[in-house]
Amino acid sequence: MTKYVGCIDLHDGKVKQIVGATLSNDDNDNNDNDKNNQLSTNYVSSHSPKYYAELYRDNKIYGTHVIKLGPNNDNAADEAIKAWPNALQIGGGINLDNCQEWIDKGADKVIITSWLFPNGELSWDRLKLISDKIGKEHLVVDVSCKKDKQEENVWIVAMNKWQTLTNTKLSKELFNKLGEYCNEILVHAADVEGLCKGIDEELVNKLGEWCCDMKDIKIVYAGGAKSLEDLKLVDKLSNGKVDLTYGSSLDLFGGNVKFTDLVKYNNDNNNL
Questions:
Q1: H/E element holding 125?
Q2: How many domains, in total, are found in the chain?
Q3: Mean pLDDT of the chain
Q4: Around Cβ 106, how many Cβ atoms within 10 Å?
Q5: How far apart are CA 218 and CA 82, in angstroms?
Q6: Which of 66, 80, 238, 244 gets the most CB atoms within 10 Å of its CB?
Q7: What are the boundaries of the region Disordered (predicted)?
Q8: 264: which residues sit within 8 A by CB, 6+ positions away?
């Protein structure tokens, strides 16, 4: 059954909620008011990463991912991991050279995306290398995507903070092969990320279809969730195969969806 999982998005060392489609792949993108990069920020928290990690820990929100959106976030990510060691996932700039370092620091899993796509092509050799190095049980593959503007019901993996389209399309075949190297797949729907206008129902339905036979693989969808009812909708559309995370719509980040309601949903449905 679908459950709620948490997120801590970091930008320039602070916990923020950002409209995904407005992120820049410029590593110097630190200024929310920079008219050149037109970054749209929904929320900047006055609380530390530690605060959120402890909140998720105390409410047993397992599978929470910490995403570093650009530079100057390593210390913030490290602070979150120390608050809940061996439980959180860390993503953003992960590669073969630093993956073990984050596991050693106390991350339960690392989330890998852009490094897997040199020149926009998915490298199965790279995926095997990193999986062999840390073990598939510690690896999440992020195939966050944008909808193909030319072809209906097609989503293309986007890298570099969702600004660069790769040559990889989401499919059942892709997910089955990815499952040989990891035990979790994360999918941000970048087109609706941070807009709080509803999930991409077609994508969620497809995710459930593509992963229906993958018994040991966890699938997490992010993007657009705006109400408690979206948990039930994702459960219905995916036949319980896909979990859901909330960002800008959550009251923890200035939204209207109550964190306590999501925790209660998980508890009531025995999804601990």
A1: helix 124-134
A2: 1
A3: 91
A4: 17
A5: 24
A6: 66
A7: 22-41
A8: none
